[in-house]
Design brief:
The chain is an alpha/beta fold. It has eight helices and eight strands; from the N terminus they run E-H-E-H-E-H-E-H-E-H-E-H-H-E-E-H.
Length: 254
């Protein structure tokens, strides 16, 4: 029997209650996933989380907490992407209004990483407040600056799965050996994983054929457009390592 699609909301919890609960009630949500800070000892929104969950329960709407680091856009993007893929097939509504700017950026980015049918039935919305507090001069909504953090720009086209597998091979090798992987070893591991196929009739210059195939079908694309790897000559060997962009792609899509 085909599973009946549910109406799912995803909403970060900051210091808002109405902007989460009212849209969920009015849009007849079946369940709300609440993005909450993964470090409870420094989470200042604890009381708001309790209020949100209580009001959702009173409205007979199920809720579940999802833990992310609200200071880390990548953490929010990764957790939301994983959640969206898990919930595929439901009608999903993403609340951009109830959390921080980091939440809004991460949520939007998560949707942009999805491709094709994975994006079906996903809608982002912004719940504007009816009234705002603290806007009379000289009051401001916040004071001071804790930290100024750079937000890197990334392409949001999803790499083919084989490229993510290669990045994982490179990363796993570095974790085990604490050094960049030799191109020869990478070629052998890619062949073992079925990412490169060399005909059984190839006997002469097999290593060179393997290298050429690695260059043309994998290395070329990981360098451009993905800018995911560095390749350097060291003695007689060529060493392959991940760039920051490669590490980002691996953390997001693996």
């Amino acid at each position: 029997m085909k599973k009946i699609a549910e109406r799912i909301h995803i909403a970060p919890v900051g210091f808002e209650v109405d902007r989460i609960v009212i849209p969920a009630v009015e849009m007849k949500a079946d369940k709300v996933y609440l993005l909450v800070h993964d470090n409870k000892t420094e989470d200042k929104a604890t009381l708001w989380i309790k209020d949100v969950k209580k009001e959702l329960k009173n409205a007979k709407i199920e809720s579940e907490e999802v833990y992310v680091n609200w200071r880390d856009i990548q953490s929010i993007t990764k957790a939301t992407r994983d959640l969206l893929l898990e919930l595929k097939g439901n009608n999903i509504y993403i609340n951009l209004a109830s959390g921080s700017k980091n939440h809004a950026i991460g949520l939007d980015r998560a949707v942009m990483t999805l491709d094709g049918s994975d994006r079906d039935n996903i809608e982002l919305f912004y719940a504007e407040s009816e009234k705002y507090l603290g806007f009379s001069h000289p009051k401001q909504l916040s004071t001071g600056v804790r930290e100024v953090k750079s937000v890197r720009s990334h392409r949001m086209v999803v790499p083919e799965e084989k490229f993510i597998t290669v990045l994982k091979i490179i990363d796993d090798y570095y974790e085990q050996e604490n050094t960049a992987i030799k191109k020869k070893i990478l070629a052998e591991k890619c062949e073992d994983a079925g990412l490169i196929v060399i005909g059984s009739d190839v006997i002469r210059n097999r290593d060179q054929v393997l290298f050429t195939s690695l260059d043309k079908t994998i290395i070329k694309y990981l360098k451009d457009p993905w800018k995911a790897i560095n390749e350097v000559q060291q003695g007689r060997n060529r060493l392959i390592s991940l760039t920051d962009e490669g590490k980002y792609l691996l953390s997001l899509f693996s």
